[in-house]
Amino acid sequence: MMLADTSDAFTGQWVVVMAGAVACLAAVMAIVSYFATRREVDSIEGRVTKIEDQLKETERRLDEKAEKRAVHLHNRVNHINSGINRIAGKLGLQLSNENDYSE
């Protein structure tokens, strides 16, 4: 009961000091929570970057496969057209080129 023996002014100082300590603790907790949130944000940014990289790689692979399919299809169509032309030549037919867009 040391505070009971002291004057009112001294007790008032302790109240102010304790209020200041509580305010400092609150400020420190706010700062700590900010850094915890910052760590979480950094973690999320890292995951987003990883996902973006994976998407770019997936897009690149899909483009490569689409290009291969297009080349294969084009070669197959050319092969079929040459066969049709050979058959038409053997039959003595003249095929019209209705779909020729090269002007």
Structural write-up:
It is a single chain. It is rod-shaped and about 120 Å long. The termini are far apart. The protein is mainly α. It has helices spanning 2-5, 8-91. The longest helix is centred in the middle third of the chain and has 84 residues, at 8-91. The chain has one domain.
SSE arrangement, N to C: HH
Q: What is the CA-based Rg, rounded? A: 40 Å
What profile does the largest beta sheet have? none
The number of helical elements comes to 2
* Main structural class: mainly alpha
Distance between the termini: 107 Å
Helix content: over 70%
SS elements, strand count: 0
Structural domains: how many: 1
* Shape estimate: rod-shaped
What percent of residues are in strands?
under 5%
The chain-level mean pLDDT equals 80
Topology of this protein?
Elements: H1 2-5, H2 8-91
Q: How would you concisely characterize the structure shown here?
A:
With 103 residues, the chain is an all-alpha fold. The protein has one domain (9-89).
Identify the notable features of this structure and list them briefly:
103 residues; 2 helices; mainly alpha; rod-shaped
